[in-house]
Amino acid sequence: MIKAQKVQGRRGGKTAQESSTIDRMRLAAAAGAGDLDTTIKSFETLNASGRLGQAEKLSYLESISGTAFRSRDHGKAKLWGQR
Predict the structure, then answer these.
(1) In tens digits, what is the pLDDT along the chain, a chain of 83 residues?
(2) CB 67 within 8 A of CB 34
(3) Contact partners, residue 78, CB within 8 Å, separation at least 6
């Protein structure tokens, strides 16, 4: 997670593919660490980029819902599960 933050903070331009890869890594790391806010932020950035396929989007939505449930935030788990 810290490495993803360091790479994101570097000066210079990144390609769309590099930014997308960083956001995917950040989302996976945050979900694994139970960091719901970072997981959601990373998903929303990826989703806004238009680079997510429908199957991948569904997988990430399930991950966010599961992360929220494990964090005992049942309201957000339900909300993200219904998306």
Answers:
(1) 556 556 555 556 888 888 889 999 998 999 888 888 898 888 888 888 888 889 988 888 888 888 888 888 888 888 777 87
(2) yes
(3) 65
